[in-house]
Amino acid sequence: MTIQLKDLGKAVLETEYAVRGPIVARAAELEKQGKEIIYCNIGNPQSLGQKPITYVRQLLALCQYPGLMDLAPGVFPVDVIETAKTILKGTKHGVGAYSESRGVRFIREAVAEFILERDHMGVDPDAIYLTDGASKGVQAVLRLLLSDANDGIMIPIPQYPLYSATLTLYEGKMVPYFLDEANNWKLNHQMLEDSIAQAKAKGIRVRAICVINPGNPTGSVLDDKNIEMILDFAQKHGLSVLADEVYQENIYLAGDKFTSFAKVLHRKGFKDVSLFSFHSCSKGFLGECGVRGGYFEFRNVPEDVAAQILKLQSVSLCANLTGQVATYAMVRPPKPGMPSYELYNKERTSILDEMRKRAVILAEGLNKIEGITCNVIAGAMYAFPNIKLPAGKTDFEYCMSLLEETGICVVPGSGFGQADGTFHFRTTILPPTEKIQKVVELFANFQKKYTEGCACCK
Description:
Elements: H1 10-14, H2 22-32, E1 38-39, H3 54-64, H4 68-71, H5 78-91, H6 105-119, E2 128-131, H7 133-145, E3 151-157, H8 162-169, E4 173-180, E5 186-187, H9 189-201, E6 205-212, H10 224-237, E7 240-244, H11 261-268, E8 275-280, E9 294-299, H12 303-315, H13 321-331, H14 341-367, E10 372-373, E11 382-383, E12 386-387, H15 395-406, E13 408-409, E14 411-412, E15 425-428, H16 433-451
Parallel strand pairs: 1-13, 3-4, 3-6, 6-7, 7-8
Antiparallel strand pairs: 2-9, 4-5, 8-9, 10-12, 11-15, 14-15
Helix pairs in contact: 2-15, 3-5, 3-13, 6-13, 7-8, 10-11, 14-16, 15-16
């Protein structure tokens, strides 16, 4: 007899991932039927026309096929060739062989130097693990922290569904804490205290708090004061901290800046708060989602626990080598004066400038539509607008109708979590700039038709 649905584990059946849910499946059906679909459901830049960074692709090409250095003399800049040779030497056996489980030592050292330059403090390369995107790192740390079904992890609401899905799959408890929508989605100390108190009242042992900065799906950027408050809260309650920092390059407002949790932790001198920080070459301006490269680093983790992390990572042997090379390209880009620098800097600046423009066009455009309010998109790649709906309607129905009518594919806020009585959707800012304005116009026309005659939406 073939395997049946009833044979599957409860955790598998209950795991949900809204970003690729039924609305996206319907979008694929409509696209096959010839309808133009504008995919705003996922942070996948190159699928929406963003061109790869030339330097990254040249480096990947040479590492994948070193013979190109001889077959195509003069095609590749000399600094790319030298960097590829250095990487291949550091891997010892090229990108077709396994590396050590933590990842290529040479690349982990480059990540450590990147962190030193960013935060002005060091980190042991052996506390850095190269991973198949940040998601695999997050899953590894959650697996480490959950010792039984009574353990819980605090996650933001709204959140990126990776966290809720993984917690369900690993049979841990989700301990939601609400972000403060009225205060640009910052974390609120009282909301954190309320969340952990409610969890403890249910007998849940809370192990850690996850924070996404810049925010997904909110587009918010945390300041030093907010980060300090979170670390103080973690120390008070004996929590580890998971800092999802994959959008650290995506900062759009003048005066805002990215500050890592590691930097603030070091400044405060806390030795009793374990921190796990995550980064990825899928996001930022690289947009290399398909390459699957990233890393996590940890601080204040005892040696015996660190040994267990190494054991867990060894089960998968190592992260893919192409992703490791892309991670090297992320943390060790061309420097001024190098042959590749001018083009690299031009491409990087252009991508981030266009994202900044789209963030403004989208937020300002949505706020002009009656029944929709949107906080400023300060960072990351997303907006999470609040929508007023006719009585009895859900955000899922709204997003499905939006898809059918306009071809715009977004994700209902219920897939990320939201305060009771409120409705949202998540959209990206990734469609080309000339198409973002069209998206806004389609939203305006759709919203008017959808809420026409509804007193609650006036």
